[in-house]
Design goal:
Strand content: 25-35%
Largest sheet: 7 strands, antiparallel
Number of helices: 12
Strand order of the largest sheet: 1-19-16-21-15-14-13
């Protein structure tokens, strides 16, 4: 009875549920799948019920017979079923490796906490290049080509941050402990210790994927050069507004004349909106949205176009205490961008408290690093079970969204929260589906029709 091939495990159950979802989507009953894939009905049902592995040759056959991709059949492996994945300072040190540039040691890299279910790819980086001036043309620094990941950086020690600004010019930002920055993907940059041969500077480079990775990137790739057309002109608020309006009109295959009839806005005015020479009022947007059968929010550009590099000095951080009643924490708001509304970064002072209440819960993926000098106690609850861990200095952890937790002791933490794929449009779609249907949306459990009929 304990044979793992007989009793379904969690991965098999998820794979089986996912397989049933695929069959529902392409309107195949299990018996249809058995015939088309030339296997027994018993095997198909065993896979669906989570009792058998999904054979690789069956996936190969399915992708040839059906309009599905191989990656559709594989589920994400959950490597932190208890909600938290901790990486100690000692384990982080074991991963250290020195990166050379131009034949000289340039960085020492170390891994910090990462999870297969989280979007973070965080790095501990020591700057081995030491500069004695702040010249952005310094020949000892070595630039990278930029990378696809978004990057939030927290600075420890005296570090020069070099980057290319929006005008294509090299810039130097002189950063110190507690300062932070956000940098957009593909912006070339580099770091060096500033005039301190006795102590190398450090950065916590918390890189993470946004909405563009995974299936989005795969879909773009399948379209070859056509995928570039999805990138609208967001160089200014006016051009962004015009590009969004034009895109929505064209996907509806409406002429300006037809949209004018529907919205009672002149074609000349609509042309001005789409060219970016004039921005529509909210009243105009209501009429256009109604004419296109979309929501007003689908026609709105970002409120502002921000720089691709955002610097935040610690002295300029907004601060507040949380919660209002117990004031267990003092929050410092670090670098962020309105272009990524579901990315939040904080330095948090943990103020000694005997209150056992789990007083923090965030609907975002969370990365935590102990940047202080003292241990901090983490308490959390998942699956109706209370658990406690000690986070020592330079330990780091990943935490799943919506876990109720607290930090106790006296010290300092760096916290980065990221939405991943769900918050935003996906969250809105799930909310429209309704909380009562989320179980099936998350993990399909039911055939799409009742074989016995349903009146």
């Amino acid at each position: 009875m304990l044979d793992s091939e007989i009793i379904p495990n969690d991965t098999k159950l998820k794979t089986g549920s996912n397989f049933l979802g695929i069959l529902n989507d392409i309107k195949r009953r299990p018996e249809d799948a058995a015939i088309e894939l030339d296997v027994s009905l018993e095997l198909i049902n065993s896979i669906i019920n989570g009792q058998s592995e999904l054979p690789s040759d069956l996936v190969e056959k399915a992708t040839k017979v059906w309009p599905v991709n191989k990656r559709d059949f594989f589920v994400i492996e959950d490597d932190c079923p208890n909600g938290i994945k901790l990486m100690t300072s000692a384990d982080s040190e074991k991963s250290k490796r020195t990166m050379e540039r131009a034949g000289q040691p340039y960085y020492e890299y170390r891994d910090t906490a990462m999870s297969k279910v989280g979007p973070f790819r965080p790095e501990w980086i020591m700057e081995l290049c030491n500069v004695d001036n702040n010249d952005s043309e310094n020949k000892s620094i070595q630039w990278n080509n930029g990378h696809f990941m978004h990057q939030f950086t927290y600075f420890i020690g005296d570090v020069n941050f070099y980057y290319i600004d929006k005008n294509g010019k090299k810039q130097t930002a002189m950063m110190s402990t507690g300062d932070s920055m956000y940098i957009t993907p593909f912006v070339p940059h580099t770091f060096a210790t500033r005039n301190n041969p006795q102590s190398n500077g450090l950065i916590l480079a918390l890189t993470y994927g946004g909405k563009l990775t995974g299936e989005f990137q795969q879909e773009l790739s399948s379209m070859s050069n056509l995928g570039q057309e999805f990138a609208l002109d967001f160089s200014s608020t006016k051009s962004a507004s015009g590009s969004i309006l034009r895109y929505n009109r064209e996907i509806s295959t409406l002429t300006l004349e037809e949209l004018s009839k529907r919205s009672n806005i002149s074609t000349k005015e609509l042309e001005n909106f789409e060219s970016g020479s004039k921005q529509p009022s909210i009243e105009d947007l209501k009429k256009i949205a109604e004419s296109l059968s979309v929501n007003i929010r689908d026609l709105l550009p970002n409120d502002k176009i921000e720089d691709k590099v955002i610097l935040k000095f610690h002295k300029d951080c907004k601060t507040w205490y949380y919660p209002e009643t117990t004031k267990c924490y003092k929050f410092f708001e670090l670098a962020s961008t309105s272009a990524l509304p579901f990315s939040k970064s904080f330095e948090v002072e943990i103020l000694d408290s005997n209150d056992s209440k789990l007083d923090i819960c965030s609907g975002l993926h969370q990365y935590v690093y102990n940047v202080g000098k003292t241990p901090i106690t983490l308490n959390w609850k998942i699956h109706e079970k209370n658990t406690q861990k000690i986070i020592n200095p330079d330990d780091s952890l990943y935490m799943k969204p919506f876990i109720k937790h607290n930090f106790r002791g006296s010290g300092k933490l760096l916290i980065l929260r990221v939405g991943g794929k769900i918050p935003g449009d996906s969250q809105r779609e799930l909310s429209i589906v309704g909380k009562e249907n989320t179980e099936r949306a998350i993990s399909e459990t039911t055939l799409w029709f009742d074989k016995k009929g349903k009146n």
